[in-house]
Specification:
- With about 220 residues, the protein is α/β, with parallel strands linked by helices.
- It folds into two domains: about 5-40, no CATH class; about 45-210, 3-Layer(aba) Sandwich (Collagenase (Catalytic Domain)).
- About 40% of the residues lie in helices and about 20% in strands.
- The chain is built from seven helices and nine strands; from the N terminus they run H-H-H-E-H-E-E-E-H-E-E-E-E-E-H-H.
- The strands form two sheets. Strands 2-1-5-9-8 form a five-stranded mixed beta sheet, sandwiched between helices. Strands 3-4-6-7 form a four-stranded mixed beta sheet.
- A hairpin with a 3-residue loop joins strand 6 and strand 7 (about 130-135).
- Helix 1 packs across helix 2 (about 15-25) and helix 2 packs across helix 3 (about 25-40).
- The two termini are about 20 Å apart.
- Bound molecules: zinc ion (2 copies).
- One zinc ion (ZN) binds near residues 166, 170, 176 and 186.
Length: about 220
């Protein structure tokens, strides 16, 4: 009961405090607390947050496919890309910064996925400073982002759907999966989405388990 009370207080004070709490006291312990609290909520959903001129049609396509598995999806109105995430030197947006921005706007128990046409990047653990990526997702921010910039070919929307599931998986703590054809396989910078066909049994059970626990 003490844990539930504590999270109620965190929720009251605000998400940003909850994040600093998570960072200060450890991901695992706070995740447990937040999950316990979220068990009592019924309105949890995946929030689609398009940036600027991201086409609504593309969002609807992804929503219509995703809703078969995850029924609670909300599409927000577009918002501006945050200036602090823009790197003028390379003219790309830093994905990590976008996740923090989206996470700050994410209600307790919800997960936000941002959609952008822009080229996004992250730092590859000191190996590559500006690593161009398709998307990024983190459990700690409960947010992820998907970019269409590097997607090629005619079936971009289908690829975007697969990318969206991949990044949402990361927000729920799923790691990259070695199984061929699984949506959680690492892209390693290549547009490999045509070779992905579903979530493997293990990843599917894991992802449904997380969402069932929350919903
Ligand atoms: Zn990934
Ligand atoms: Zn898998």
């Amino acid at each position: 009961m003490k844990r539930i009370d504590l999270c109620g207080i965190i929720n009251f004070i605000g998400i940003s405090f909850a994040h600093s709490f998570t960072l200060s006291f450890g991901l695992i312990s706070c995740d447990k607390i937040i999950s316990t609290f979220e068990n009592k909520k019924t309105n949890t959903m995946i929030v689609f947050q398009p940036f600027e001129d991201f086409p609504t049609q593309s969002l609807k396509f992804v929503r219509n496919k995703l809703v078969k598995t995850f029924p609670n999806i909300q599409i927000n109105k577009p918002i501006d890309l945050p200036k602090q995430a823009y790197n003028k030197t390379i003219k790309r947006y830093q994905a990590d910064s976008l996740l923090i921005y989206l996470g700050q706007r994410t209600k307790t128990g919800h997960v936000t996925i941002g959609f952008t046409l822009e080229h996004i990047y992250t730092n590859m653990e000191g190996k590559v400073k500006y690593w161009g990526i398709f998307g990024l997702g983190k459990k700690i921010t409960r947010s992820c982002v998907a970019s269409t910039f590097k997607l090629k070919g005619k079936n971009k929307l289908d690829k975007l759907y697969k990318l969206a599931i991949h990044e949402i998986g990361h927000t729920q703590g799923l790691n990259h999966c070695p199984n061929e054809g699984c949506y959680m396989r690492a892209a390693n910078g290549k547009d490999h989405f045509d070779a992905l066909h579903n979530l493997c049994k293990k990843c599917s059970q894991e992802l449904r388990g997380y969402f069932n626990r929350i919903w």
